[in-house]
Amino acid sequence: MNNSQLYKGSLSLIILKLLEENKRMYGYEMTQKVKEQTGGELVINEGALYPALHKLEADGLLTVAVEQVGNRPRKYYSLTEKGEAETINRLEELTEFVKHMQLLLNPKLSLG
Amino acid sequence: MNNSQLYKGSLSLIILKLLEENKRMYGYEMTQKVKEQTGGELVINEGALYPALHKLEADGLLTVAVEQVGNRPRKYYSLTEKGEAETINRLEELTEFVKHMQLLLNPKLSLG
DNA sequence: CAAATATACCTCAGAAATTGATATATCAAA
DNA sequence: TTTGATATATCAATTTCTGAGGTATATTTG
């Protein structure tokens, strides 16, 4: 994530949301998907991604299944039930937050 | 700020924006203003506020004027020119970021 | 075929920001 | 007179990210 000081803490939500839509993804795939979907403007740093994945797993929001692809192992992550519920909660939290920011910064932010 | 993991890093922008609108404010006033403008839903933690104010000051974005009110000193903060420019930049950055989050999380976020 | 690039995982030191606790002190109102 | 609001501030611990580095396989291209 190259967007400096602000916006910290949104990475885990991005991961959760990606998995909500795609069911099964591996880390590298996530970095590429985000790059692609934002026209290369949002780049996930792997030094942030892997620790975040491990934390989400430790928190019981993700499960991992290792698969051998060709000669190398690949770790597919999926949401647990807890993870699905948490994703919904965090999206609501974000919506709330945007609403609050809108109240404070008025001009440009609104809900669709 | 009690709104958990996400949304870190937005505090300094909130401060800048408050000062853009109000010219002169002191710390405690900011916490009350934010509480008021968000119906009590966004609460600025003073343990975050004061370090943030000091950092913005150290970065040359704010100036301070101490005034004696009754028996106690009060610190009024204002934007410097640099601070005004920075406020505009950071608001643009936020707009960009919301745009990117919108691309990733699709459903509920949009620009006004 | 060799070299470069892409894929794919990972860790770690240091930086930055926040939480939650704690401290101090004034002042108004019950 | 003591509670609660006003007003400032610091600090340890925690979380999170950046930027760098490390390992290894697979594919493309000159």
From TrEMBL, chains A, B:
Transcription regulator PadR N-terminal domain location, by residue?
15-86
Q: Return the Gene3D superfamilies for the record.
A: Winged helix-like DNA-binding domain superfamily/Winged helix DNA-binding domain
Q: Does the keyword DNA-binding apply?
A: yes
Q: Name one GO molecular function term.
A: DNA binding
What keyword terms does UniProt attach to this protein? DNA-binding
Name the Pfam families for this protein.
Answer: PadR
For this protein, the record's SUPFAM superfamilies field holds:
Winged helix' DNA-binding domain
Q: Which InterPro entries match?
A: Metal_resp_DNA-bind_regulator (IPR052509), Tscrpt_reg_PadR_N (IPR005149), WH-like_DNA-bd_sf (IPR036388), WH_DNA-bd_sf (IPR036390)
Q: Where are the transmembrane segments?
A: none
What is the protein name given in its UniProt record? Answer: DNA-binding PadR family transcriptional regulator
Q: Which organism is it from?
A: Runella defluvii
